[in-house]
Amino acid sequence: MTDIKSPITGGPVTEITGIQTMEFRKESYEVPVRFYKCVDSGEEFTTGDQDEEWSTVLYSQYRQKHGIPSPDQIHELRSQIGLSLQELTSILGFGTNQLSQYEKGEVPSESNGKLLSLCMKKDNLRMLLRLSKDKFTKAEYRSLNDRINSVNK
């Protein structure tokens, strides 16, 4: 039993843990889950925190399987190089809101994930910058190139 009361009857609940197979983008993943079961009605329910726990694990498994950087890794890349959100989106060809959502936890498409994964290495990011040269003034391009070169990755 737990201190939480059933939202269905107001009565006692039991906490249940286990592993559940979940689908994400047409792939199956084994995810640890926690939920509650109302003792009186037998109804099962979750809290927002529990939903967030399993979705975080599910998305992490997907990212790991497909080599997609985590939100923290994307943010760390920008911080290390001193790239603004706008600068990195210009290099990658993403929209600013799109990259911002990836940093907040949204899972990119597999193709965008691969592009993000590529840019985690300095040489690849420098190549992507060269391919996006027309989006920057000469001074901006030099500054970006110098910042990328100064990173030890």
Rg from C-alpha positions?
A: 21 Å
Quaternary class: single chain
Total strand segments? 3
Biggest β-sheet, characterized? 3 strands, antiparallel
Structural class: alpha+beta
- The average pLDDT value, as a whole number, equals 92
Detail the poorly predicted runs. none
Brief sketch in words of this structure:
The protein is 50% helix and 17% strand. By secondary structure, the protein is an alpha+beta fold.
Describe the structure.
There is one protein chain. The chain has 153 residues and is of the alpha+beta class. 50% of the residues lie in helices and 17% in strands. The protein has helices at 48-66, 71-81, 85-92, 96-103, 110-118, 122-131, 138-149, and strands at residues 13-24, 27-38, 44-45. Strands 1-2-3 form a three-stranded antiparallel β-sheet, covered by helices on one side. Strand 1 (13-24) and strand 2 (27-38) form a beta hairpin. Helix 6 (122-131) runs antiparallel to helix 7. The longest helix is centred in the middle third of the chain and has 19 residues, at 48-66. The chain is elongated and about 70 Å long.
Name some characteristics of this structure.
elongated, alpha+beta, three-stranded antiparallel sheet, 7 helices, 153 residues, 3 strands
Q: Which helices and strands appear, and what pairs or packs with what?
A:
Elements: E1 13-24, E2 27-38, E3 44-45, H1 48-66, H2 71-81, H3 85-92, H4 96-103, H5 110-118, H6 122-131, H7 138-149
Antiparallel strand pairs: 1-2, 2-3
